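hey team, just a heads up i'm posting the complex here instead of the shared drive bc the drive is being weird again. everything in one block, sequence lines first with there labels, then the predicted structure for the whole assembly after. its three chains so it's a bit long, scroll down
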Amino acid sequence: MDILQQLFNIFIFPGLLFLFVFALAAEFIDRRLYARFQNRMGPPWFQPLADFIKLLAKEDIIPQEADVATFKLMPVLALTATVTSFFYIPLWNEQALFSFNGDIIVVLYLLTIPTLTYFLGGWYSRSVYSMIGAVRSLTQLFAYEVPLFMSILASALLAGTWSLSGMAVFYNDHPWYWLFNLIGFATALVALLGKLEKVPFDIPEAETEIVAGSFTEYSGRMLALFRLSINVEMVVGASLLAAVFLPFSLDGNLVLGFAIYLFKVISIVAFIALARSIFARLRLDQMINLCWRFFAPIGFLQVLINLAIKGFFLK
Amino acid sequence: MPNKIRKLPDSGDVQVPIGPQHPSLKEPESFLLTLRGEKITAASVRLGYNHRGIEKACEERTYIQDLYLIERVCGICSHAHLTCFVQAVEEIAAIEVPKRAQYIRVVVGELERIHSHLLWLGVAGHEIGFDTLLMYSWRDREIVMDILADLAGNRVHYGVTTYGGVKRDITPEQIKDVLKAVDTLEERTKYYIELAKNEETIIKRLSGVGMLKHDDALRLGAVGPTARAGGVDRDTRRDDPYAAYPEMKFKVVIDDHADVYGRTLVRMGELMEAYSIIRQALTNMPEGVFRVRAPRRIPAGEATGRYEAPRGEDVHYVKSNGSDKPERVKIRAPTLANIQAVTHMLEDRYLADMPIVVAAIDPCFSCTDRLIGIKDLRTDKKQTLDWDNLRLSGIKWYQKRGVDFSRLNEKLKRSFK
Amino acid sequence: MTEEQIKQQIEHQFGYLKDAVVIKRARRLWLDVPMDKFEEVFVYLTEAMPLVRLLTITGMDEGTTFGIIYHLAAESGIILNLRIHIPRENPAIQSMTSKFSCADIYEREIKDLLGIQVLGLPEGRRYPLTDNWPDGEYPLRKDWKGLSTEKKGGTLNAQ
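-- predicted structure starts here --
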């Protein structure tokens, strides 16, 4: 019975199937809002699903010079990593599906894997645009990762635990402490834009320069998997930020908690759509400057603030 | 081999082909960039992919047919090319164009400039990854397209100018409509100017990019907004006036940024001037005929004409031999003058700047390439395929693979009987 | 400088150009020079006179000769069309890229379409014909009738 329960959790709810539906829904919301901000109609609700099915039906083309094994493996790896990290994030109650002390580090690293797969997949496509896109992905990774880690770890520092579920318990016991983390929240939102490669940080897949970056040579099922993993990453990233920085209403009844969880994630997705429609794409050097000179110090400031609070108030 | 990576020996440099087919290029042209990391160390350009043989084709057609052909040199500055050509022919034939026709030419010419600059603004937004600007400016562009369709009957190839005047008159109701549309557009343009001056990411991406200083602009022969953004005080409408421009009050918009940002400001400023010119032309439009008869045979002679197209100065040379066909037509589109500045502007910039630098001259490659070549060349055997044969061979190719529409065609034919 | 002043100065400078400068209308001057005198006239016009711009170069087939027109312009709006005629046998002109770097592409066009050699033209990719265009086919020459095609009623059809 326990195994059945776990299989249900992993594959149906809140595992793969739920995540799949939610990811497509998030893509729809993102695209629809983006379109409405731009004074367009936008796609109908089933468009992401239709796109996904269409891509599945298309022919897989692998470039002659590509490393076939790596090329094929990367989309699967990207999807697996993002889905796995989802199980460690508390969603609508205090307890995530799985948890142990230190899972916050695991989640952060699992969320780094997709970027690495973009790099490897692009690099082993051996196409000039893919390779430039791959190098850009990796360069960008080093820029946004530091502010993201700083701000999330600052929040964990305040809670005094390295487990996401533990953090949820702490913030539930101290309901207003999340307000201390607002600076970190803003930084993490910006870093999330970089992680998801959305405007103004969509440099690795800048269409007008390098066609589609790492994904230039991908087609068919593998492209579908990549796109799905980006959408899943969007949901997981938003859930992570929601769990870390907006940790309220986690102990109420399940229905209300679920509704509030959806609301939190959708708000973050809406923010992404808004950022996409009001900014122009930055250049790689500008992006790195911005992250290192501005957001990394802010993340560090958040760490200092939380240390001070811990020192004075939480003896 | 467009997609293969090419490493140059003994250096870390990589050659990246941009084009002939690439998302940042709206028309086929090929740029070959040598990159060191993200930096461009060398750039070269290969033109000619849009070569359609228009100059040669003009020699084989009558002047009346050429009217339609010349207009199709470009899909955006069609009025510019046509008017430039017609003015040269009128000069040879000594045709006195009625005042009213000249005013109408100015109105359509300035509307075309508005449509072109708004289009450019959208493309520039897209090239720097700011698609919202593209959607907004192209929505506003619809207003001017509708007005042009109302005045000329067409959205793109207006066909307004003809030998001895214009083909259509403007009615008082149309004047009212145009003035109303211009008011709306002016308000929108003010918003875009505000946006360009205040939006941080736009300024970041545009300023300091694609520098073309005053001296370089002169040396490389740049024209239009590209040169004017570098402080070059040059505008054919004022220097070599044609049509009704001598009677218009307008100022030549110049900027000293010398970069893509400056070019944006120049184009936005030109939009504001265009609104003022249209208002002047419509309110002061003289009464009278809008066309005089022009001879079918143009007397022998030659003329060089100039026209300030939205992208810069357009030069046409026409030589006639007394028959109804021109002896030689030469077209120098503004992009051809500007394209040589592009390689200069790209050097030592980042790869990310390449799309916007190219877009900033507002390139129109189909203007630039005009001449020969429709023939399919198969190595040494000079085999040719015309459209019908091409179609037939396409049908046969698919029939071999099981796609056959002949039965369906039969069925459709029967059902229509 | 007005059109009349330009005309007088040229005629004053070069005795053999007496009455060669024609003012066809306001801001339009035409000047034919012999081929061997072209360079000194060109240099004088662009350096000592205000004709600082090269608008374009037109090449054309005139039957027994080729005509090359250099459209020079002053900032004031005056255009001087400087024309030379070169023989049909082994036609060649001197490249003007050292004076006007923008001449490069105009000269390439003349070379490709009329088959006129341009001496001193820097290395570079051809323009505007395709790389596999056959040698000896120069489309803008009047005797060129297409590649194994014939003219029928104004359109080009396959044989």
